[in-house]
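Standup notes
- DV: blocked on the single-chain target, sequence here:
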Amino acid sequence: MFILVPNGIPLGGRESPVKKEPRSEGSLGALQNKLTSNIPPSEDRIGFIGLGIMGAPMAANLLRTGHNVSVYNRTKSKTGELAEHGATVYETLRQIIENCDIVFGLVQI
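- DV (later): unblocked, structure below
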């Protein structure tokens, strides 16, 4: 994984990326939900290049918490469900890099 900001400096069986089952009160996920429930969404435009095992769930989690999320994937069909939930879909890498403040790249090299 790599993260790009506009100046180009790196920062260093799949279920639905949007729908999650409620977690039990004693689970680690429930604790994480409590810790992050009061964090407001960022004003930054967040982009994801690659919507595989890591990219889709990360983008979905940010969408669920109200962030401005954009996506790009070579296989366009992987962008559909995220687009239905509010993600902006870009057709080219250049578009997503030029229009987002932070870009996560989750691709195989």
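- Follow-up: Confidence is low (pLDDT under 50) at residues 1-18.
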